[in-house]
Amino acid sequence: xxxxxxxxxxxxxxxxxxxxxKNSALPIIFATILLKGDSxxxxxxxxxxVLNSLEILREMGAKITVLDSxxxxxxxxxxxxxxxxxxxxxxxRASSYxxxxxxxxxxxxxxxxxxxxxxxxxxxxxxxxxxxxLGAVCNEENDFxxxxxxxxxxxxxxxxxxxxxxxxxxxxxxxxxxxxxxxxENVAVEPHVDDLIHFLNSAGAKIIRYGRRIFCEGVKQLxxxxxxxxxxxxxxxxxxxxxxxxxGEIVLKNTNTAHLSYVLDIFSKMGADVGITxxxxxxxxxxxxxxxxxxxxxxxxxxxxxxxxxxxxxCFSKNGGIIKEGIFPTRFAYVGELQKxxxxxxxxxxxxxxxxxxxxxxxxxxxxxxxxxxLICAALATHGVSTINxxxxxxxxxxxxxxxxxxxxxxxxxxxxxx
Length: 419
Ligand code: UD1
Hints:
By secondary structure, the chain is an alpha/beta fold. The chain has 2 domains: 3-15 and 231-415, Enolpyruvate transferase domain (UDP-n-acetylglucosamine1-carboxyvinyl-transferase, Chain, Alpha-beta prism); 25-228, UDP-n-acetylglucosamine1-carboxyvinyl-transferase, Chain (Alpha-beta prism). Helix content is 32%, strand content 26%. It contains 14 helices and 25 strands. The protein has helices at residues 22-31, 48-59, 86-91, 97-106, 125-133, 165-175, 191-202, 233-246, 257-269, 307-315, 334-340, 369-380, 391-394, 401-407; strands at residues 3-8, 13-17, 35-36, 39-42, 63-68, 71-75, 108-112, 137-141, 144-148, 157-159, 181-185, 206-210, 213-217, 222-223, 226-228, 248-253, 273-276, 281-285, 294-295, 321-324, 344-348, 351-355, 363-365, 384-389, 411-415. Strands 23-24-1-25 form a 4-stranded mixed β-sheet. The protein has a 4-stranded mixed β-sheet with strand order 2-16-18-17, with helices on one face. Helix 12 (369-380) links the parallel strand 23 (363-365) and strand 24. It is globular. The protein starts with a strand and ends with a strand. The structure holds uridine-diphosphate-N-acetylglucosamine. The site of uridine-diphosphate-N-acetylglucosamine has 22 residues, from helix 5 and helix 6.
């Protein structure tokens, strides 16, 4: 099993190119199931979740050609309606997008319950509610989801009971070919949702989002496209926590600063020096930042995917803070690992209070993707050599992590196998 060693204590300085957004690359890759002909997807992040999604499509019979390090050609014209690669599907939450795409293309979908990051129950009843209102029959049996329709699906109005990225995307995917206009209310408005809509509209779909309402007018078919994925907002913000914790400066290139603005404002209030243009962030933190209290919530508010990294940053802040988790109430598996490094944290029901702490190096275990990213933050800002196990979680979502951190002056090594 791979592990990272990090010799921390130095300020990170330099610039990095932000990679393409994992959370939109995945639905876009699965959405190619609905396009006829070749599509070229650019700015694809080379992370293991993306490679696994491509593998799932390949096993279904798709033609996948890697054009260069960040572009891939996908043609799904001859895929089978049978979903294979069950083991990979059960590992990945994003494989749930096969429900919407297979229903739209073949009228049925049968797949193992999608897996994913390890931070509590991740229900799909809102996805199934949407499919059912469109006329499909949905069942869950022996850890499989079975969705089918004998008659053509019918357009209707669907109001989500909860704001859900996954359900919003899945219902949009299922609605693309339905005659008339499907209206989806109380939708998620994360940049990954808009990236997918932008992609589908480039392929001939007729989707409009007004605030938390989506109108999807059915079309007969979608054509292949050349499309560039949006930059990854969570990767960008993660690097800012690293620079904020170590005290230093960074230029983030190839980013979309509009997506970052809520959190950038918080960093400014904490005392960081933040300068933005449309595509670049200049960020400096030459003294310990002040603390902050935040609550995770759907976009445009504070992202749950930054919660663990932000908790790490607060350990190095002047006065700490409280993070309330409003999306996944049990997303606290990282806390015990940071405590092994000496972090002073008090966990309550759905929140964590972080006190300024003097951390020491230790051997710790990544428990999921963002928890792993949080441990890297702590290790970079702590003197001594720390070891982080279970790197497999971290490479699911951070492209070229060791090279990017090294280019900022971080002393990080990836050790393969039993070293
Ligand atoms: C969520 C995050 C997304 C993040 C991803 C990976 C939100 C709104 N979504 O997306 O930004 O990138 O995790 O960490 O922040 N829910 C139900 N029933 C459902 C679907 C969802 O109760 O059928 C609940 C979930 O348990 C959760 C909330 O709704 O509390 C949001 O879930 P959802 O957005 O669907 O999760 P992801 O799509 O995984």
